Amino acid sequence: MNLKLYSLLLLCLPASAQFRYTPEKPQIGQTVSFTYTPQGTPLATDSTIEGRYVRYGAPTVMHLSRPTTVTLVRQGADFVGELYMPKKDVAGTMLLFRNSRQPKRADLNKNLLYVIPLTDVAGKLVPHATGGQASVFTRSNFLYESGSRPDLNQVVALYEQELKEYPDLRPTYWSDHLAALVRQKKVGYGPKVKAGIESYLASRPTPTAAELTAAAQLYESMGDFAKANLQRERMKKLDPAGSLAQKDRAAAVRSQTDWTRRKALYQAFVTEFPGSSYLPLLAVGMTDGYFKNNDITGLVTFVDQQPATHIDVLMLNTMAFQLADEKRSLPEAGKLVNKAMSVLKTQPKPGNVSGNWEEEKQIRQRLLMNTLARTLEQQGNYAEAYTAYQAFMNPDDVDNSDPRVNERYYLCALRTNHGTDAQPMAEAAVQVGKATPRLKTALRDWYAKQPGQDDSKANVYVTELEAELRAEQRDELRQILINEPAPAFSLTDLQGRTISSSALKGKVVVVDFWATWCGPCIASFPAMQQAQSRFQSDPNVRFLFVNTREGGPVQRVHNFMAKNTYPFVVPLDAQQRMANAYKVQGIPTKVVIDGKGRVRYRAIGYNGNPETTVNELTLVVEMLKEEK
After folding, report:
1. How confident is the model at residue 6, as a pLDDT?
2. Are residues 130 and 8 in contact, defined by beta-carbon separation less than 8 angstroms?
């Protein structure tokens, strides 16, 4: 059997060591049950595993595909779940599995993903069941969201197998297939692709504008601009006032950097091409332009004049939320979110939505209600804000909630004397790690004021809520702890004091390697300050903020610390000796040394989540203290 064909057939097998599903030959409209076994994968030792999937079909619907999380239930060493196969526009489903708390830790099945292709009643793969897999790799960001890239050899093989099984789909896949050959860059690909373009166009008595556009783009991708322009000239002759002319004019509108001129160009386009297919995207671009130019009054007026098909509800939501969160133009923010809610009620299914529109509308409605609640809350209208929060908060789905939203909801509940009503949601958020420090503090303080309670009991209450989560986090941290000798060091800090490893013997030492020019280093400082403050009264824990790789005068470090007044001890590693000894490959790097003089933890970079950073470092320090 041909090796390429064999590898494709492997993709369609219903069972493997890691992934099995029933029925073995699923059809549209069926619910598929699957079992995932992480043994032997990058997730073999993880307990917090979630599935992510996209449904796929013809290339024309792939841009609609939205990565979605599927609920997994653990059964012994396995994780099981179910997926429904819709009756329209779907030829299969592709999945990956990852650690829900560390999304970059993922099992991508060697970048092939796990596949559930659909079959017809005779058990034959339906059209697009194979080619659609290639479309996931080329027309979606599903693989990229886990930091990986598709195997172009596999992509080409998938397209070729689809065309072999369904030759009549050549008009659907010809340009994608040839584009994959260009990216694959095998020896001799240029003549092969050009021959493919010419062969396809010759087979079409009257090529469409889309086909000529695709041909032009393929020629451009190979640097043959002369032939690309020939295709565009054919398009102009085909329709002198058609899509190409409109495309050029639309491009001129989008590329105009002068805001006044851009508005004039847009208005001229609307007048000349009132029914143009480019108008919806142009209108969305203009909406963005009004916002970026801080013409919020003009933005509201412009949006009010647009038909529903020219309005991006999610864009309006983002704009309104930013205004509300920054506490500016709050009345206008309210108008924008109310406009978006009005549009959503009657809006037909947008072209960029592939799944169930009613379900998607509910998701968007919840987002809009969150923004409305934030807008009302920022205006001091807590009663209406609490009602808005109640309309979309889901106590049964706290695992997928936003800690910041949970915080705002609970604080709003307290302001409106609904603390008891919101208590279950707040408790659940704390239990699953979806509570901010402020929410936990507010819950503890509220609990302490309840009849029969006090501060001591409230502290125990919150600690017990977090107990199971912290145990799970400790188990995960134990898997990443290291055990290396800690090289000796002796540095001078900004005050001229000697900071040495010998003087810190017996203590747990947290070392943060940083420089003033390092943006992520500085961004992590508020979190590091919080972590340090948790142990400020503990004589057996020390934090050192070692300045290294500065590449400039030491006065720059003095000036930075004087301006920001962080309560940090800052040893100077001007020659990078300590950084090199501690295997610092990039900054920021956090290192934790235990009381026995061993390096037990090393982390590079900053994930932008201060609470995660604080909690992880706190747990590591506590675990190492307990080992004494």
Report:
1. 35
2. yes
Q: Is the bond preceding 23 in cis, omega lying within 30 degrees of 0? A: yes
Residue 580 resides in a domain:
yes
| Same domain, residue pair 454 and 504 | no
Q: Are strands 484-485 and 490-493 parallel, antiparallel or unpaired?
A: unpaired
CA dihedral of 42, 45, 47, 51, whole degrees rounded to 10: 20
> Helix 243-255 to helix 279-292 angle, to the nearest 10 degrees?
0
Residues with Cβ within 8 Å of residue 392, at least 6 apart in sequence:
365, 366, 369, 370, 373
Number of structural domains in the chain: 3
Contact 431, 465 (CB under 8 A): yes
Instruction: Give the C-alpha separation, 114 to 97, whole Å.
Output: 9
Phi, psi of 345 (to 5 degrees): -60, -35
360 belongs to a structural domain: no
Residue 438: which domain range?
Answer: 393-479
Q: Does 461 share its domain with 522?
A: no
End-to-end CA distance of the chain: 62
Residue partners of 483: CB distance under 8 A and separation at least 6: 598, 599, 600
DSSP state of 541: E
Whether 589 maps to a domain, the answer reads: yes
157: which residues sit within 8 A by CB, 6+ positions away?
Answer: 4, 7, 8
Q: Tell me, letter by letter, the H, E, C secondary structure of 163-189.
A: HHHCHHHHHHHHHHHHHHHHHHCCCCH
Q: In what order do the strands lie in the sheet with 73-75?
A: 19-22, 31-36, 78-84, 73-75
Residue in the block written with tokens 């307290």: 414
pLDDT < 70: residue spans in the chain: 1-17, 63-65, 240-241, 628
pLDDT in tens, 260-289: 999 999 999 999 899 899 999 999 999 999
* CA angle at 558 for the pair 552 and 564, rounded to the nearest 5°: 115
Classify residue 232: in a domain, yes or no.
Answer: no
User: What pLDDT was estimated at residue 3?
Assistant: 37
Q: Are residues 27 and 135 both part of a single domain?
A: yes
Q: Which of 392, 394, 376 is nearest to 384 (CA)?
A: 376
pLDDT on residue 360? 92
Q: How is residue 459 annotated by DSSP?
A: H
pLDDT for 397-425, tens place per residue? Answer: 898 899 999 999 999 999 999 999 999 99
Nearest residue to 545 via CA among 499, 514, 575, 576: 514
Using DSSP, state whether 30 is helix, strand or coil: coil
431, 499: one domain: no
Q: What is the CATH number of the domain that holds 589?
A: 3.40.30.10
Q: Is 552 helix (H, G, I), strand (E, B) or coil?
A: coil
* Cα(477)–Cα(603) distance, integer angstroms: 12
Same domain for 115 and 13?
yes
- Which among 9, 15, 50 has a CA at the least distance from the CA of 32? 15
Q: Are 512 and 526 in contact (CB under 8 A)?
A: no
| Strand-pair category, 92-99 with 114-117 | antiparallel
